[in-house]
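Example A, followed by Example B.
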Amino acid sequence: MKDAKLEVVRGSGNVFRDLGHENADVEQFKAILVAEIIKALDREHLTVRAAHQRTGIAAADFSRLRNADLGRFTVDRLMAIINRLGSRIEVKIRVRRAESVPHQATA
């Protein structure tokens, strides 16, 4: 193993895109929002029950967020949770031309 050469590949900055996910930008944005929610919970030393009491959001939802189970969450819902935790969101958008992706023929 010592002599094995490793190939280094520079990522795109979005792991979901690198893994070929269809909605990579949305998934990346949701992950960023959830990370901010978790930071707020940790900063305030809030348990999921205390977060529920403060925000009215179900404790089970905070558990799902901590476990990265994001299927039930939309971007706007995550933004509302951040707002209820007392933080505000500033979004800066940078649009770049997508790299050429070869189209696959359908049968």
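Example B, a separate protein, is given below in the same form.
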Amino acid sequence: MPAKPRRPRDPAKEKHWRGIIQRHQRSGLSVHAFCEREGLKDGNFLWWRRELNRRDREKTTARPISSDKASPQPSVSPVFLPVRVVDAGVEAARQTTPIEILLPYGPIVRVPVGFDPWTLGEILAVLEGRRC
């Protein structure tokens, strides 16, 4: 069975969808949230993103028919992925901040990160005057 003929590509539509996909990448939103905000159908967005990626791969893997002159490679739009930047100082402080336990009528117990729960239980029992 012969392959189904494709419709000719519409450069204006491709440019339009490339712009939408770039806005999504800059937005940091999920596909669903972005499409909801923009009034788009998730399925259309995902189809165009997949199709444009396929076209870009086609361009980069297509080999020109042998010629004596070196032909320039077609330009390919860069693909950007969302990045979450985390303040390393805040993360380090969160991981190294000890736990403080204020016992009624008694001392303050500072428990470091990575403590042994059984040992802590034994210490608290002694400090509260209970038997271990």
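On Example B: DSSP finds five helices and two strands in the chain.
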